[in-house]
Amino acid sequence: MAYFLFAIGASHAQQHIQGVIRNQITQEPASAISIKIKGSREGTYSNDRGQFQLNSSQAFPITLLISAIGYDSQEIKVENNNPIQISLSPATTLAQEIVVSASRSVQTKLSSPVTIEQLSAKDVQNSPQLNYMDMIQGLRGVDVTVSSLGFTSVTTRGFNTSGNTNFTQMVDGMDNQAPGLNFPLGSVIGLTQLDVDNIELLSGASSALYGSRGLNGTMIMTSKDPFKYKGLSVLVTQGVNHINSKKNNDPVDASPVYDYVIRYANSINDKFAYKVNAQYTKANDWVANSTVNKNGPGGPDTDPNYNGINMYGGATSTDINPFMYAAMMGNPALQPLIEPMLAKPTYVARTGYPEFGYLDNNANLFKVNAELRYRINNNLEAIASGTFGTGNIVYTNDTRYQINDFKVGQYRLELKSEDWFLRTYTTQENSGNTLIAGPTAQLINEAWKVSYDGATGGWYPEYTEAFLTALATGSSEQEAHMAARQFADQGRLLEGSEGFNTLKDKISQTPISEGGTLFLDRSSLYNTEFQYNFNKLIPFMDVIAGVNWRLYNLNSKNTLFPDKDKPIKVNEYSAYIQLGKRLLEEKLTLNTSFRYDKNSLFGKPKVTSRASAVYQMMPQNYWRFSYQNAYSFPSNIQALQNTMNGYNSFSSGGSNLLLNDHYHFNEFPPYTLQSVQEYQQTNDASKLKRFEYDDIKPQTVNAFELGYATVISNRILVDVLGYYSTWKNFIGYANVVNTPGTDDVNAFKDQSKYMTYNIAFNGGEEVNTYGYAASFGVDLGKNFMTKVNYYSDYLKNKNNSQINNFNTPNYHVNFEFGNSGFGKKQAWSFNTTLRHKPGYHYAVAGGLGEGTVPASLVIDAQVTYKILKARSGIRIGGTNITNKYYSTGIANPRIGAMYYVTYAYNLL
């Protein structure tokens, strides 16, 4: 009898449930469907073939809860161990989206207290864009700067620039910033295209939840759980770009584009799961080829001081009047010719090199990821993951940077339960052989022929001699300048030649600290965070609290930071709490958050807050209001950068550690560059204006937002908002000049005696921004869906003492129209997107250039056919299919069409 009872107990403890889930209409396997046992935590997911199996300790009958976004939920009663067949009916996804990042807790997007946009795995799969970073451009409120095929910077609500340090990007809970440079790395070590589960983007201030540098938004990317998404998936894309390049002033001929992605995931006994991902992208990159003159309205044939935005080397500029005066003293007969010209300076720039042929436009990116998960019990999971990325891309900042053979790794250990998590991770970077375009070109010019050498002459004396000779023989001044340049440039190394490449390699691979232009960034970041949700312990309100510690180990060997003797360590300590309460029969939800942060570079800590209210007027009808106080400690670059960006020219942080101790501003005062240029032109010392500075400090923003969201007849989603923000101690940039070793202002007349600096500093005036936005989504039935959004951003009172980098058009319009399945067994699908921006002003910090970015209208489209029996699909599509070249910013590349064919396996 005892044995019989034991056998019955064992049987009850080992109920085995298995089955297959399919799409009711197409009969395709339905993967990643949640199967849970009602009344318990036991559950699993269907695999890539729709199959599932589940062991349970409960006795039959057992009720299964079947659910997934995009399908109607079901309850299935299981009576025995026989395999079951389940058909799910597709349902609209409108307003079904679940978000986490808005409040660090699960809620519907419709009821979020702040503006949030989302991309799901299905969105990524159906997009005509080849990567999710391009998709982000179509989200409401988002603006981007594209430096190259592999480097896209994101922002919201203005202040758009490459390498935005005021935007936070998180990948599986890890800050995706470069440890030394402090800006997000885009997709460099982000998720592979096949491993995106969802992307949530918070517009505007968010540092009360996610810490420093969240002033312009936060993007939260979550990868696919290997327990949920199983099997082998492959994505192979073959494309072509640079079509009709000559017609579009593109120096690159039609070129192939390759993108290969693979993902494999599996689980063992619902206890252990793993996944591996890899992606390789290779293409001839777009080229930045703006010839706009940074020194005035003239071109290379009319302005002897011509310095093109994407012509590198022309930043070396000298007044040749001293050479003409010396010629006059040596030959008094030249006095009638020369003396009238000495009344004002005659600045001449060295000849620059265009980007094409100088920078390598062979872009390639490779990244690999692996993750292990172990379920310790039904409520506790251990995770270990690692991601590594390398490649060659170009990035825009104060000049263009050719980032060759960079290497970045991010590694994580995490314990995660339903109520808490403990996460620790590290980011390790190696800048590789990065070429800094502007300074390297200047040094190539100097190595080929020195600008001036009192003993042997040089380029400028040769130029002056040829200039005077041409004038003496009857040439006009413009013709004489052209003849002089041609003479002085005799034997000049041409871009791409063997001699040019030899010098370029030698200079760019010699560290800045040794007279070259190579920076050796080997910085690292270490972070540990713990968070606990007290909802089960405090049932009358929602309480979430956490602590965070971070260490930046800045290690550039004195090429990026003043770390000659040893690495610089910067510690950050944080604690946060979020409180929530539902009132008025749960129609009103109030939330508030507080965060304390301390950075070891700055004396005072920062306390920030957020408060929000969401009121549900009726089902699927919400008003929301939020106030957010956000802040940003100056980034490591804004505080401590010390990098040469040209001849006697530096990009500098705003810490007194640099300004006084390193540059000796307290002994040899700085003047604004504009006033020095006016002095050089007029010889009037009263034009000189001192640059007033102070130790850089954190910037803050107070942001208010009012929004309304509703779903009408389960078919139309409407979301509108308006916001207003006030910035204090805004960190911008200023170009200043000083004369180390002397306070004699006459030294400003000789470029070799003065230094120029592009310095980060706090503006004294308040800066205000405001804007509004609206979005509409319509489910047209039969799998047709259309979306449109409109948003605007304005800078109310620009701080004229800084380069603010607002760099955002007054409005954007994005439109999308598609069908996720039509025809026999819904094997066909398509999607089309349109993005329009008017022309707008764009300025690059560091003096790289400013001007008007032309208006653009970009159309992307794709059509897909599913080969159901082969679990495959063929997609034909294109981005910017009209091939009207456009740019996202001054000094950035012009982007044309890319047409492609993609084969996808197991993405149905």
Automatic annotation (TrEMBL):
Coiled-coil ranges per UniProt: none
Topology within the bilayer: Multi-pass membrane protein
Chief location of this protein within or outside the cell: membrane
Subcellular localization: Cell outer membrane
InterPro entries assigned: Beta-barrel_TonB_sf (IPR036942), CarboxyPept-like_regulatory (IPR008969), Plug_dom (IPR012910), Plug_dom_sf (IPR037066), TonB-dep_rcpt-like (IPR039426)
Keywords of this entry: Cell outer membrane, Membrane, Receptor, Signal, Transmembrane, Transmembrane beta strand, Transport
The TonB-dependent receptor plug domain, residue ranges: 109-218
Keyword set includes Hydrolase: no
Keyword Transmembrane: yes
Protein name: TonB-dependent receptor
